[in-house]
Predict the 3D structure of the following.
Amino acid sequence: MIQIDNQNTEEIIKELCTSNGLSYEKIDQEGPETSTLEMFFSGYPKIVGMSFFPNLTTLSLVGQSIQKISDLEYCPLLRNLWIAECCLTKIDGLQYCTNLEKLYLYYNEISTIENLETLIKLEVIWLNNNQIKEIQGLHTLQNLKELNLAANLIHKIGTCFDPNEQLERLNLSGNRICSFKELSNLTSLPHLKDLSLNDPQYDPNPICLLCNYATHVLYHMPQLQRLDTYDVSQKQIKVLAEATVMKKIMYYNMRVKSVHRQLNEELEKLKERKCKLQKLPEDRIKLFSCNLKHLERELTELQTSGKIQNNKSIKSKRLEIEKSIDDSENTDETSEESSLENKFFLKLEALRERITFWNRKLDEIEKIYQMEVKKKKKSNSLVVQFLLTELETVGNTRFEEGSPSDSWFNSCYDLILSRFCAWDFKSYGITGVKINRIIRVHNRILRMIFEEKFQLFLDEEVLSETENYRKMLECLFYVFDPDLPVKKKQLLQVLEDGFQAMEEHKLSRRQAVLLCNSLSMCERPRIEFLQQQTKDERKNSNDLEEPFRHGKLIIAKVFLGHSVPAREKDPISQVNYPGANSVFRPRKHLLSDTSDADDEMYSSVEHRNCDCRHRQCEWFVFDHELVLPEYIVEFEYTTLVKVQSLFSTLSNVIVDERKKNTEGFILSSDLQRDDEVMNMEPTVKARPKIVCLDEKTVLSVAKANIYSQIVVLNLHGNSLSKLRDISKLTGLRKLIVSFNEFTCLDDVYHLPNLEYFDASHNHVITLEGIRGLSKLKYLDLSWNQLKKTGEEINVLRKHTSNVLSLDIRHNPWHKPVSLRLSVIGRLKALTRLDGVQITEEEAAAASCFIAGSKISQACLLEHSRTDEVRPRILSVHPYAKILTEISKNKVDSQTHFSSSWYPKITVLDLDGQHLSKIANLEKLENLRWASFSNNNLTKIEGLESCLNLEELTLDGNCISNLEGISKLTKLTRLSVNNNHLTTLERRVFENLSHLHYLSLESNRITSLVGLQKAYTLIELYISNNYVSTYQEIYHLKETADIESAKDLFGGRLTCDMIAERLGHSDFTKMQELNWTTSTIRTVDLAPADQFRNVCNVNLQNNNLTSFSGLIFLPNVKILCLNYNHIESVLPRQKPQNHLTNRQQLYQKVTSSGYGQQGPSKGNRDAGFGENLPPIMQSLEVLHLGYNGISNLAQLQLSRLKNLKLLFLQGNEISQIEGLEGLQLLQELVLDHNRVKTIAEGSFARQNSLLALHLEENRLRELNNLQPLVKLQKLFLGLNKIQELSELEKLEGVPSLRELSIYGNPVTCKMSHRPLLVFRLPSLQVLDGMTVSTEERARAELHLIEQQGIPAANSPMDSGFPGLPITFSKHPPLRVTNVNLLEGINHLFGSDLMFPHVFEDPLQNEANKYKKSKNPGMVTTNPRSIHAEIALRQVKGATANLLNQLTQQSGTTRTAYMHQSSRENDGRFKFRLSSSTEKSYLG
């Protein structure tokens, strides 16, 4: 090893030459010829002598002590540079190596990527195993193809790779990347083929440990060939990833729509409540307005008749009246005329005052309504954002809303209440806190980092015996910085990324995460900030509520670690508190900073008794990763001033006078004042209402002789619906038709001199027909039913262009928000609208509004993009909206002067532009994704040239039909939610052959018949419409593609479905899964380990064809699949020509329903599953009744090795096979099948079988039962057994205790029961009746007497031809276990001897089933013959005893237990003969 201290430059160069086989003396000659130099592990201290090698192309320096790159300015031709495993701290000195192509600087101490801007030819960079924290300095390396940044300290990716589009290989393993959003940034690398985030040589990134990591990467980067060193080039893998993501997006899209649907329902309830609240004010306004117009008409008539002078204006008269009231004490008398006039004007003024009052109430109700709507939308928006966050994080961040049934909800609730002290809030008027909602945050990545840090701390810290690390864990409240706005975006960022996002905010002054254990300490900064903020803004004391009333709270789990007390003078920072994990500051140290009011409050006697403040404390945690957000709480304070919600269904609109806050409410004194005004003089006399208008009536009302004299026509307060021949009044200047029954005003036309027109308080729904009113100045259309904003304004602009004053209030306009600006912008002459003067600023704003509501060239340039590839992003938003937000591919500003930029536009997002018409899109021939939501469109037009359009979004408009999209044949997604559609035209959908997504929610559609031709539809959303009958669903006919969609997505039992039913997703507590009658086709419960405690599964009455994903549940013991369509344990493959590519892929992967390849047909038909691996090894009880099973072998039941009870009743089984692997089977039920015979191998290995049920089959023979050596119960009822000889074969079942043969033809023979009792010595129950000892004795006596057997001493003498004749010896026979005589054996003791013995008949296979030639009786058991002989010898001695036994003993009968049910019109019997089965089915 060369010592650095003693080296000089010459020695270093000599060492370099020696290492590379060069001569130092000839370096001048050999140096220029050298192209490659290498130095390995020699302690080379610095780079020197490069001037001798001007043509050097490769330099390798590994394992040296180089701290700085130098002397390379002499090597301009250098292409490959290795400086690895050295001590480099900085990238420098390479600016002259402009030809460098490969740079290897791994295993150094580099912290920043820098000084590479000039190396534009670089293709390979290795910077792994350094100290790099941020990816930067690569923006000029556009030729970069390979980059290795493994084993660094990188947390974020960002957009740093956007310029490096040629990058093909990227290694980021061993870093700290923990966000899926960061991975999404890699989609900007179109040529990336090899990506490593979890290289086996390095530690994985935290994100690699999360669920769905590989799926996320493969979906976003389908061009990848290798991922984490694994080959992922197969197309099937990419298709599977895309299908998985598509299903997730579809699922969350439905959930988001459900939330929107719930919001719409709540808004409808609010709207109904508002209508009810506005009913009284509206009725009062109509009443007073009607009386006001009555009085005005009366006054006008009196003035016209001369009874009252008409020489003063109303305004001057009003002032005169006020003055006369003031001087009334000095006036002795007034004239009668003046008195009447004053009464008119006083009442008119009072009526106007009441109208103003009730209009104000309407405005108050509307204001409160809008606030309630805002609250609902805000809450809804937060829930939607939670769902979108779940989708974006692929389920690794979830939000669970709690309820009182959840233990964690109650714990959290109690925690908040325990940390609320009323004395702390007394100065704010707060008396309590109410919890509105608690949401639990499940953030896998934050929790994993927290636990990792926590464990690391425990491993490093040496805790004393008295310390307990659990005491260092606390649940604390996060204290928001009041100077920073806590909006939805910031809140979600904290819940997703942790508290680093808030503490690193550019406006934040904190250097630690501030938390506390007191609600007052947490909320005090916010309350005071809001109070100060609104102090100058509050004009009166009638504001609805305090600004701080509603709040949000984040509860975090905190590891305090080594915590030290705060010092007064030192700022809270890690520098001032080295070695500390957190700093705490008790509340008592903060009291010196409190206000005087607080000091007074603290000094009160009552508060001294409260010790809350002694426990209150705040903490500053330096490491944000040790603070884990777990709950978010929405709450509100209760205050001394009770705020009663006007929109509460329990609140009364009319309140008493003592109520302080009366905004929106009505006082009883208001109603009294109304009555007083109505009773004022003069009273209005009722007039007969005019129903039909004719010439005579018109002249009478106008008090004129001819039409030409009529200037004013007041038809107020009648029942007119038509104004016939009104156009003949050419001299008419003023027309009043208020409070009539008009629905249209088409009779009002060609009145050239009309200046004043009052049509208020009618039922006008359209202005079509109005024309020729060129001089009209005043128009009142208030209190009608006008809805279509654009159409009505266009009529007014065309036919009443000179109108100066217009009143259109209290109409149900479709788009009321933009109504005022739209009217002002289009009616240029207007000076007054809805009783409010139009200002110049308002007129200018309206002009800008109108200009911006048209699709102009500038509008297209601003809101368009030129992307050609559909974005791969996890979102439910339209692609047009997504691309407009994330894409930077705008039209080049230099080319917009020519028309060549139009075809480049592929994306157009014109949401919320107040468009009334789609126009100027003729040149956008390549437009693919377009959105026109939240505009004023009434029809679809202007898209005829956009034939390449794939997605069209038109939500939130006023569209009434879908005419205009029938030519868009490439359309795949169409959304027309929240419009005015009433029908779906069939011809529109006939040409949309690619449409697979259609959303028509919140319209007025009554029928789905128009969708009969929409064959390609996969997703249809039609909620909140007027479809009222189930028959409409039948219009959605199934096609091959829809069937394919059903195969992929329909009838799936998923974790999400179970979580929705349970209300939580903690499946580890489940022990039973019961999901019957739900049309389930497949089961997908992944990961299956979370169902590890489920032991009982009931999926009766569904559509399963296999066990599907149930085979992965590890501990299921009981599985009930009755009434399904089970064909096999594992899914059977469909013919390949009938499957889509996606379905073929599903067959090849391990997933629910499609996941495994079953055995070949040959193996299945063979019936032997011994070569197949076992599955569901915990399963003990299986119910497969009524599944239509015909082939037992294809079921592959042999793979269920530990099965003990198998129920197959009610199928179509004709042959018993495929049970070879069920060696532990104890009970088999095959009732109600089609079994004709029992084959030789049917029960070859069922030597453990205890019960066999074969009732209601077609058995004629009872062969091959001899392997069932342990069989105790056999049920053969309702078969076709005819011969007694078949019953004798049951002797081969030695352990048989219970037998049933009722309903067979053989039971018609009287001797069948004695024969069975005689032949089966272990039999205890026959056909439900107990076999007693006396019955057995009688049966034997009966059979012996029938045969007439003489006393004999040997089998030869017995006369039974079926007995063997091979007995040569006659040793004595000791009768000790003859069951037939067990009732009398004790009388003779154990030494009762018989002279003959015989061999075990079970060992003599030749004679086992030999039939007797005597047709009357068959004897196959020699032991029975000896029993008969013995019985004959003792018959006389025991005759009396048998009689006595017969009298004392009785027969015990047992009843059958049947479970009956119906299937179609047939009936079946199901025997519950086993106590085990009863318990399982019970």
